[in-house]
Amino acid sequence: MLSRLLGPQRRYLWFWVFTGPFVIGLTVFGYVPLLWSITLSFFDAHNTVTPSHFVGFANYTAILSDSAFTSSLATFAVFSLFIVPATYALSLALALMVNRLRLARAFFRSVFFLPTACSYVVASMIWKLSIFNGVRFGLANTVLGWLGPDPVAWLSTTRPPWYWVVIVTVRLWLQAGFYLVLFLAGLQRIPGTLYEAAAVDGARPGWQVFRYITFPQLRATSVAVVLLLVINAFQAFDEFYNLLSTARGYPPYARPPLVYLYYVALGQGQDLGMGSAGAVVLALVIAVATVVQARWFGLGRKEA
Amino acid sequence: MGEGLRSFARALRVVILIALAVLFLIPFYLLVRNGLASESDITAAHWTFFPTHVRWGNVRELFDDPSVPMLHALWNSTRIAVATTAGTLLLASLAGYGLARIPYPWANHVFYGILGTLMIPSAVTFVPSFVLVSTLGWISTLRGLIVPTLFSGFAAFLFRQYFLGFPRELEDAARVDGLGYWRTYWRVVVPNSAPVFAAVGAIVFIGSWNAFLWPLVIGQDQQSWTVQVALATFNNGQTVNLHEMFVAAAVSILPLLVVFVVLQRFIVAGVERSGIDD
């Protein structure tokens, strides 16, 4: 009887022996900063983390009326409008092609997956200084030169905004392989019998099979991929910072939310109150976006 | 569809794939080409596909250049990535096992509390985390670069999912032998879970080696620069030569490519599992 009573209680103890260290760490380095930041957002906190001057919603009104903040949201919108469809289409197309290979499938998957190992810093360096270098010896300008046109100053031309070509292609290269792997896994899960049935029903291989079998069957994968792409685009910082900032500082264009936040909270002013307010606003934006998107696609509905 | 048409489509597919594969490899080619070229080869008016003289001396030049603390940055990155990987594997695997296997009435709440942190984008937490770390006095220390990153909800989640599918018979056999949770875990579960440790370990290691925003924010003085921060500093400045920058980038990516190629099978499996299902 006693051992029976002790049994479950020892179990509780063991549960916390296993999970305790992790949970404590996550609380201290995850939840505490979050709550602290929410607090800071209601204070005047220049260069201090223990402010005493309560300002209510002043930081929020300040940041929401700051045109630099709203334009950073617009920058994110433009960026995701480019990068989300582009990555989705490329990685799905690659997955479809690689999946139908009989030979060298692992080889091609490896080649497309390899950039995943590269850092945004290194990739940005290659893009900025070698491929899209604004002078004549840059690779893109060399190729252009063979065709005729004059060299383009890719990163400093705002009309037309050529810098988007550089920003979008670097991320496309870095992340396509990751989503290719997700799509390949999704394709493997489609039961072969569906294709046999489609063939019996006279569906033509190619577009019809893709339209009525493959694409609907990839629904769950597609939803996850789009969600991840949007969230990751929202957090873009590395390539913007490394492509655009120079010894003279960061140009006034192409500042996504995180770059904006970086300069507000950790730049010269060290305005942690306003930076925290910005972080909270961004958290709300992404939470709403995630929920809306999940509703839209019916994620969270139990799948059979 | 005729047989001829079908094999034409197949051939076309292969040609497109090869073209795209070449395109995807170009950045790596540029890294090596520029890294082993002389400055005048890189900036020449006419494109040279490979330097006329391969200059391995660029590597030594890089490490001999006192204005570029590359060796120290590599050493920092190595220590940080190794410690982060080891710590994450230990903490997250224990938590994942506890959540998956030890009955506890509030286990689901704990799990959702961990899952909740995955919903909070790191974009949103870097300011508050910076605040915390600076309060602790950990700016520009290895501690500040390592400890806050050790508690990965993502890793705990992957381990939990994996342990849920771990064959119970093995643990039952250990139980019969009189082993408790602790010793069952270390003697039976861990030795039989190498693939998941390899997958999570590789993903964490690569993520840590390539991390940029956190090391940039925390590693403020040169002593605590990681490789990525050092590279970014050269990249944004105008003091360093192109060939030196590219050879530095190539050196920085080399250890990672080795990890990546050796463990690729596990990484792919880990990425697949991180997908959506469950």
| Main sheet overview of chain B | none
Number of individual domains of chain B:
2
> What is the subunit arrangement here?
heterodimer
Low-confidence runs of chain A: 300-304
Q: Give helix and strand order of chain A, one letter per element, not per position.
A: HHHHHHHHHHHHH
Rg from alpha-carbon coordinates of chain A? 25 Å
Radius of gyration of chain B from CA coordinates: 24 Å
Structure, explained:
The complex is a heterodimer of chains A (304) and B (278). With 304 residues, chain A is mostly helical. Chain A has a single domain (66-297), classed as MetI-like (MetI-like fold). Chain A has helices spanning 2-40, 58-64, 67-99, 105-113, 120-131, 139-147, 163-188, 192-200, 207-217, 219-234, 238-244, 257-266, 272-297. In chain A, helix 3 (67-99) packs across helix 12, helix 5 packs across helix 7 (163-188) and helix 7 (163-188) packs antiparallel against helix 10 (219-234). The two termini of chain B are 40 Å apart. Chain B has two domains: 3-61; 64-273, MetI-like (MetI-like fold). The relative contact order of chain B is 0.14. The chains are: A mainly alpha (304), B mainly alpha (278). At the A-B interface, helix 1, helix 3, helix 4, helix 5 and helix 7 of A face helix 1, helix 4, helix 5, helix 6 and helix 10 of B.
Helix/strand layout:
The complex is a heterodimer of chains A (304) and B (278).
Chain A: H1 2-40, H2 58-64, H3 67-99, H4 105-113, H5 120-131, H6 139-147, H7 163-188, H8 192-200, H9 207-217, H10 219-234, H11 238-244, H12 257-266, H13 272-297
Helix pairs in contact in A: 1-13, 2-13, 3-7, 3-10, 3-12, 4-7, 5-7, 5-11, 7-10, 10-13, 12-13
Chain B: H1 3-35, H2 39-42, H3 57-64, H4 70-101, H5 107-119, H6 122-135, H7 142-146, H8 153-164, H9 168-176, H10 181-189, H11 194-210, H12 213-218, H13 227-236, H14 242-262, H15 264-273
List key phrases describing it.
heterodimer; A: 304 residues; mainly alpha; MetI-like fold; 13 helices; globular; disordered C terminus; B: 278 residues; 2 domains; 73% helix
